[in-house]
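Record type: monomer structure entry
Structure origin: computed from sequence
Chain ID: A
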Amino acid sequence: MTHFFGYQGRAAHPSKFDCELGTTLGFSAAALLESGVNCSAVAIKDLNKDVSEWRCGAVPIMALLRSQPKPGSKRHQLVVLSDEVQLDGDAYQLLK
């Protein structure tokens, strides 16, 4: 069973980095499943290094979930929190 957490759209062809990251994520997911690991999301570290030095692992999906109020209800729902990139924010300006 899989779950879709969303996507980010792009307006250009994927870069070499995008292709390498996509391939690494897919291969790592298959390797985790083959090893019997489930209920996890693939995690890749050291993306600023050469692809041969990337470190692959898994993060339990439960560790990503947070409880927040469900709109229009007294109940709560589990969500994976995300942040929008603020183009005028300090982090983006530093990266830029």
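Annotation 1: The mean pLDDT is 88.
Annotation 2: The longest strand covers residues 40-45.
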